[in-house]
Amino acid sequence: MKTLDRRGISKAVYVVIVVIIVILIGATILLGTNHSSAITTSSQTSVVASPTSQTTTATSGQPLAANQTLVVDYTSSPGSLDPASDVEIAGFGIMGNIMQSLVYYNNSDSSTIVPVLAQNYSIGSDGRTITFTLRQGITFSNGDPFNAYCVWYSYYRAAVMRQSGAFFYGVELNLSGVTAAELNELNSSTNTPPQSLMPVVGNTTNAIAVLGPYKVQIRTNSPFPDIFGWMVYSKIVDPRAIEMHGGVVAGQSNSWANLNPIGTGPFILQTWVQGSYAILVRNPNYWGGPGQGVFPTPKLSKVVIYFVPSETTREENILSGSADVAAIDTPRISAVNGSQGVVLPDFGISNTYAWMPIDGRQYPLNITQVREAVVHAINWTQIDQQVYHGLLYPSAGVVPYGLVGFNASMHPYAYQPVLAENLLSQAGFPNGTGMPTLTFYYATDYPETYLVAQVVQADLAGIGIQVQLKGLTFSQILGLDSSTPDSSPQHPSLQWVSITGSPIPSGYADPLFMTNNYGNLDNYSNPVVDQLLTEAQGTFNNTLRAELYNQASQIVYNSYFYYFIGNIRDFFPAQFFVFRSNVHGYYYQSAFSQLDFSTIYLT
C-alpha cells in the first residue's frame, strides 16, 4: 500500500495552514463602510502592483467593451496574493482573476478540463508522465514573456519556499532536487535560464522538466488522474519579476510577491488597501484566453472589491444597490432572497459538502450502538429547513454529489428516534441513564454551525443524551482536534465541518477518510478503506473508480463515525453570493473559490 501522507502535508501542518487562514480573516478591519469614501481617503496606503497607464484597445487591435465597473462586497481581505504562500479563499478569489494555470475547468462544467496556458497535453502509457505543449506569444501583464521555464520556476519556487501554498503545487509530485540558488539563476528579461542551469531545468528524472522553450514534462509519483484538479490551483508566476524583488529564499515568503501579483490573466491589481478594498482593472496586454468562453477578454473595465466583515453592512449594500454582488452568510440568506432587484442564482448543487465527525474513540462513542443511536436521533429535515432554508441535497459517503464514485442511493441517516432509544438501551444506557455529557464544538466564525449544534443538542436530549455546546473559532477547534487525544473527554465529541474543493473525488475521499490524513478530524481509521481509496485514486478507469469508492462509502457509512449532512445548493465556499439583477455572466465553479470576473457583464 502507498503511504498515507502522499498528499505532501501532515494533519498538524494542515491545522497550521487553517489557523493562518482564519487569523488573517479575523484580522481584517473595515476602514470605511461607505464605498466611495473608502477609495478617496485611503489611497495613500495602497499597493500598486502594475503599470498605471491603461489603454482601451486589446493587443489584437480590437476595441474593448464599453467601460463597466463592478462593485463587490467580500467578507475578508487576503493576507497574501502570492500563490506560493496563500491558501485563503479571499486570496484565491483575487489571484484567479490575475494569474493562470496550465489547465482549468470549462467554467461550470467540472467534467471537462480545458488547456489554458497549455496548448495541449498528452498522458504517457505509464499514467504518470504528462507532456504539455504551451501556448506561444503570451506575456505577463508587465510585458515579460511566458514560457516553459516559468512553469518549472513556479512549481519549484513553491516547494523551496515551503509556505502554505506549496501544498497545491506538490500534490503527488516529488518536488525535490532544485535549490533556491538554482532558481535565482533564472533571472533574465526573456525568462530564459543561463546555459549552466539547463542540465537542472531539463533533468527528466525530476518531477518537472523543461523539454523545450514551450514544452514541459510533469511526472507524478504514481498514476493519478485527479492531478489536473490540483493543477488549477498552481498559478504560474513571472520569474523575472520575482528575481527583481528579492528572489527565492528557502523556507521564507517573499514580502514583495505577497503584495504584488503579476500574472497572465485578464485583470491586473491596480490598488490594494489591505483590510479595506482592492481594485482590479482590465489587463491591456491580455492574450484573450483559450476560447470556449474560458477566461475571455473581460467586458468589465474595473472591479472594486470591498472587504466588509459586517454582515449587516453587506446586506444593506446589496439591497440598496451600492454593491452589485455581496457575500451573504447562511443564516441571513432568507432575509435577502426575493428582495426587489436582488437575485440568488440557481447554481444547482454545489461541491460544498458538510458532515459531522463523531469521535468514535471517546467513551461511550466508542460503542457502535451509541454512535448508531446518535445518527438516528438527529432530524436531518429540521437541519435542512431551519439552518439551510431547504437548500441541502441529501448526499452521503466518501464522495459528494456529482463526482465519480458518488452513490445516489446513499442518503443521510433516517430520523428514527424510537430506534435510537432502543439502540441506546441495548448499549447499556436506557433513557440515557449513566451516559456522560457529550460536547459539541461549534465554530463562532461560521454562524450556521451554532444553529446545527442547537438542533443536535435538542434532538439528542430527546433520547436522554445531554450535549453541552462550546463555541471556539474554527482554527481553535482544529487546534483542539490536533492537540488532544481522541479518547480524551477534552476532544470534541461532535463538531460541524464542511469542505469545498476542486471537483475531484480524491480531493474529498482521501483527506477526510484516510488514516492520519489532514482532514480526518475524528481520526477514523480502517485499513480496508485506506486500500480502496488508494486503488481508486490511482486508476484512470472511471467504472472501477466508482466501484471502489462505493465500497469504501458502504464501510464508512455502516461505521457511524460520521453524520452526513450533504451538499449545499448554490453555495460558494463559506457563503452564498447574491447579485443585483443587472449583473450577468457569472457561474459556479468550486475550484475558483469566488467569482471569475472575466465572464461577468452589466446591463
Distance between the termini: 56 Å
What about the largest sheet?
A: 7 strands, mixed
Supply the number of helical segments: 20
Q: If strands are numbered along the chain, what order do they take across the biggest sheet?
A: 8-9-10-1-11-20-12
CATH class of the largest domain: Alpha Beta
Q: Give me the secondary-structure category.
A: alpha+beta
The low-confidence parts are: 1-33, 36-65
Number of domains: 3
Mean pLDDT: 88
Helix content: 25-40%
- Percent strand: 15-25%
Radius of gyration: 24 Å
Oligomeric state of the chains present here: single chain
Shape: globular
CATH arch. level architecture of the largest domain: Roll
CATH topology label of the largest domain: Dipeptide-binding Protein, domain 3
Q: Looking at this structure, what is the CATH superfamily of the largest domain?
A: Dipeptide-binding Protein, Domain 3
- Give the beta-strand count: 22
Overview of the molecule:
- This protein has 603 residues and is of the alpha+beta class.
- It is 30% helix and 18% strand.
- The strands form six sheets. The protein has a seven-stranded mixed sheet, sandwiched between helices. The chain has a four-stranded antiparallel sheet with strand order 4-5-7-6, covered by helices on one side. A four-stranded antiparallel sheet has the order 14-19-13-18, with helices on one face.
- The radius of gyration is 24 Å and the shape is globular.
- It starts with 10 loop residues before the first helix and ends with a strand.
- The relative contact order is 0.16.
- Mean pLDDT is 88; it is low at 1-33 and 36-65.
